[in-house]
Design a protein that fits this description.
The protein is mostly helical and 246 residues long. It has two domains: 42 residues, no CATH class; 153 residues, Butyryl-CoA Dehydrogenase, subunit A, domain 3 (Up-down Bundle), CATH 1.20.140. Helix content is 57%, strand content 9%.
Length: 246
């Protein structure tokens, strides 16, 4: 198994993707991408801490997003509040099954699945669960791709509030749940952006090295002689420390 790029001092720019070599001098200034001048890091700083914090905030907003009214309709017969689930039930009872399924999927299923997927990825990166790293990477990229489509409810409310302004006959205004739901979507998008999927491969490498240490015979057959001097904590906590060794 070849050494990962982090142990060799190669860092990929998070903005433009250019691969550069970091300086091994501890007194050197913060390395920047030669193309776009973005600060370079072997791994995203505090990736798991930021992801967990954003996920907890998203989970706290998810409760009022589903319990509070997302839309208020005022008309001749008075005011009527509608939550996300009550809107889904209304569309279903009206026979608009495709609309009900789309709103339920985009507003309930996708946010829950995205939060669950990010929690799974964070636990895997911390070593609390064992899963194939390739499958975890697919889960991450699918989660990042689908997360933005959770704004369907917010878009619908915004369009209705803009178009339906009939004075005393009918007026639609967004409810407090619209703000909470938009916050859930934005926070989960930021949490996906904060997560560094390379940590999954770091943890996978650590588990392989631990299994090699536990069973030297298996480790000698599985790895070449160049792998025997690599320390796992160096890779996971601060890969630059290995570059600074004499």
């Amino acid at each position: 198994m070849p050494e990962p790029a982090a142990l060799q001092g190669f860092a990929s720019c998070h903005t433009c993707g250019k691969v550069s070599v970091l300086s091994a001098d501890p007194a050197a200034e913060t390395a920047r991408c030669p193309r776009c001048r973005t600060p370079l890091h072997l791994r995203k700083p505090y990736s798991l801490q930021r992801t967990w914090a954003l996920l907890l905030a998203a989970g706290a907003l998810y409760v009022p997003a589903n319990l509070l009214p997302i839309m208020e309709v005022r008309g001749i017969q008075g005011a009527q509040n509608s939550t996300i689930l009550s809107g889904v039930i209304t569309f279903w009872q009206m026979g608009s099954y495709p609309v009900a399924i789309i709103i339920f999927t985009a507003s309930v299923v996708i946010p829950l699945m995205k939060v669950a997927a990010l929690v799974w990825l964070c636990l895997a990166a911390q070593g609390h669960t064992v899963s194939p790293p390739r499958a975890l990477n697919r889960v991450y990229y699918i989660t990042e791709l689908l997360g933005r489509w959770s704004m369907v409810d917010v878009f619908v409310v915004a369009v209705l509030a803009t178009m339906v302004k009939l004075g005393a006959l009918m007026t639609i205004t967004p409810g407090p749940a619209a703000v909470s739901f938009a916050g859930v979507v934005i926070l989960t998008m930021f949490s996906a952006m904060s997560f560094d999927p390379r940590l999954i491969w770091d943890r996978h490498r650590e588990s392989l090295l631990n299994s090699r240490n536990a069973d030297p015979a298996v480790g000698d057959n599985a790895y070449g002689p160049e792998e025997k001097g690599i320390s796992t904590p160096t890779l996971l906590h601060n890969p630059c420390d290995r570059l600074r060794l004499p």
